[in-house]
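Let's practice the habit of predicting before peeking. Look at the sequence and jot down your guess about where helices and strands might fall. Then scroll down.
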Amino acid sequence: MKLSKFILEQSQGDKVVLKQLLTGTVISLSETDYREIASGDFSRLDADVVADLLDCKFLIEGDENEQFKQEFASWWQQTNFMTLFIAPTNNCNFDCVYCYEDGIDRSLTMSDLTVNKVIDWVRTYLVINKGIEVLDLIFHGGEPTLHKKVIRKFLVCIAAICESHQVRLITSIVTNGALLDDSLASLLAQYNLHRVQLTLDGFREVHDVRRPFKNGKGSYDIILANMKNLLEKNYLDEVFLRVNIDEGNLDSVVDFLLFLANDPVLAGGIRLSLGVVTPTSGCNGHTSGAQQYVVSSRLKTASDTDTYLDILGTARDLGFEITDEFMVGPWCAARHPHAWLIGPLGEVYKCAGDLGRHERSVGTVDGGTDASGLYALSEGRLDGCLQSDCALVPVCGGGCLFDHRSEPGSACRKEFLTAINCGLMMNQAK
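Done guessing? Here is the structure:
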């Protein structure tokens, strides 16, 4: 019996706050008790306390690496659900300053022939994989709403396929929101609309600089109106709203959150995601907007991290549901056997970030798929991090596979993840 490796610790007076990242449990121990436990001395602990620590996995028996890999594999091997991203087009009507898709061919749009091939692929996939009970159909891009006709056809046809196979269909869309008008929203709502993800980076004067239309016009007012329409018409209970945070909007985000929390339509209808822009690489010789942007604007200093944590705390105080862990991809779709993204040419990817990077394709809808190389990379990264005894493995899973393939050896974000997760832990302990 020994102390788990997957623990964050933070001193708090004469106490030590501990978080088991695998279970999410937070406890507080005296400094003396913690040091004795860490040294393997359990003589002063009651049997009931030891049992509780074992139950919450603060104390472990056996090979912890193998136990984690088995738990990770049990998720990876779940076969009753399928996540299918479809990108009807690579094109986008925005010119975001931190775009990670720079360099991909923006002219590609899914043809009727390819649409039919994708529909046939889905039908065959469900015949072969009879254990699938739920299919989450997610429209992605580029900007998927630029190709509404294709969205409509996929909804009708895939819904019919799911019904014939007794598979429950849920639908989602990741969109900038500018073209998500009432007609499209009402259409999606007819097909068990589960999630809409939009992005607003703050008030008009902030957001419109960062996420304008290609013609330079602002997008804030249109997105806000479309987001409110989703909630006012009860097309879904809540909108997933991403706010990308960096030095450019740190000082104004809190006021924006106050606005959201006090708006009579938006209050209670927002699932908030406070993201951090990372230097995602471009392709085809292009440096991505994300790479260029974060050189001057990413969160770099300890004070930045503290400010970000203060923002998270404020969001929680305002009633927004905030994650208790900051993760970078242990449970990402690229690792799951029934998660795929299909691009406008019918090319198949495992990672949504790979769209348009054809060298990252794992096959086509009419030519078969092979994702074994990506799965091997995932397993290798996980093994390496476990062998290094890093406490963060449950929240990183070896790190983002997109980053590891783009910039091998430079993707570890241990310092940032430790600082953020320790701060979140102390918020939980309050």
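How did you do? The chain has 15 helices and 15 strands.
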